Amino acid sequence: MSDQIIIVGGSHAAISVADNLRKQSFDGPIKIINAEDELPYQRPPLSKAYMSGDMTLDRLHLRPAEWYVDNNIDLVLSTRATAIHRDTKQLEIEGGALIAYDKLVLATGASARKLPAAIGGELDNVHVMRDLRDANILMEKMAAGKKLVVIGGGYIGLEAAAEASKKGLSVTVLEAAPRILQRVACAETADTFRALHEKHGVKVLENVILKNIKDDGNGACAGVVLDDGTVIDADIIITGIGILPNMELAVGAELKTGLGIIVDEYGRTSDADIYACGDVTVLPFEGQPTRLESVQNAHDQGAIVASNIAGANEAYHPEPWFWSDQYDMKLQIAGLNRGYDHVVIRQGKREGSVSHFYFSGDKFIAVDCMNDAATYAMSKRILASNAQLTIEMASDPSFVLKTLLS
């Protein structure tokens, strides 16, 4: 097969497609168009190990430079794709050059949602945490004694708060919802992480509404103003208020879109010669259109796309997993807790380990494991096997999960 494959994007999904194409003996030309000037890199560690200094840039890279050469993959950096010409099967890049494709893969990811300029979102020292540039800027600015306000109590915001606290900054987290992790976790998991942050001196304010960011008079932030008039001083502000899929190319090409680029179980868009994978996509999962924002999905969906480009016609059946590192707490999540109505708290074997099991009716659908790697590994296997873990079983501390797999 000698078709030319063009991949737009430069993170987990893009590299998964290219890597798996070569592993399946695809010998045609592969070109990756990446707007960033850095070798494709992992994003999750940016707010964890990289920011803490525990991971170097070399380790952050998904593949070393020689890998692209050895695998005959043309990596084009610092180049933005600007349009798709579906009628002629050409990708336009900035400057107007056209690149022909036989199959096109959109692995364009997502961008951090920013605060409106009208309330101070564009002031200096107001940052997001999404890419390497964001992380490097924040690492330079985070110094002991400075005041940091984190807007948004999701995992990205809490991870940034943890790293800042460890560096000696005074940290306040603001969450508009009644509690942190409102969209992604049960109250029991939120309680665990709230207590963890407060133990490390972080102030967690929930059910508070940001009115605007205070200007210091020189175009930089000086703090935040809440709707009740409360002023909280800040030298640095990080916003972690969600992401927006980078689907401008798809919209411009009139591909089917919604909360992302809509793909079928094979990774195909509404154009049979254009695939998409990773954070930018909306895919069918358990009968519902779903956007899975995770490394697992980017990697696995990318592998399926590669297989199908190579002619496999293989459907994707996601097995979601996620993780978060905060202080000495490692959270591992298996499954998707959408639609849960019951939570079982189950203590782990190690001191301080605990897991929260999610059920929809009597169906086990997901688990949050805190410093409980053994339970995570077993639960992940149970979810993949569709073994019937009941509420009664999970609630019984003497019940051995492994028996469901024997």
UniProtKB/TrEMBL annotation:
Extract the Pfam families matched here.
Pyr_redox_2, Reductase_C
| Gene3D superfamilies, sorted | 3.30.390.30, FAD/NAD(P)-binding domain (3.50.50.60)
FAD/NAD(P)-binding domain boundaries: 4-302
Q: Does the keyword Hydrolase apply?
A: no
Q: Which GO terms describe its cellular component?
A: cytoplasm
GO molecular-function terms, A-Z: oxidoreductase activity, acting on NAD(P)H
The chain positions of domain Reductase C-terminal read 321-405
Which UniProt key words apply to this protein? FAD, Flavoprotein, Oxidoreductase
State the needed cofactors, names only.
FAD
What's the domain of life for this entry? Answer: Bacteria
What is this protein identified as? Pyridine nucleotide-disulfide oxidoreductase
Q: Which organism is it from?
A: Ahrensia marina
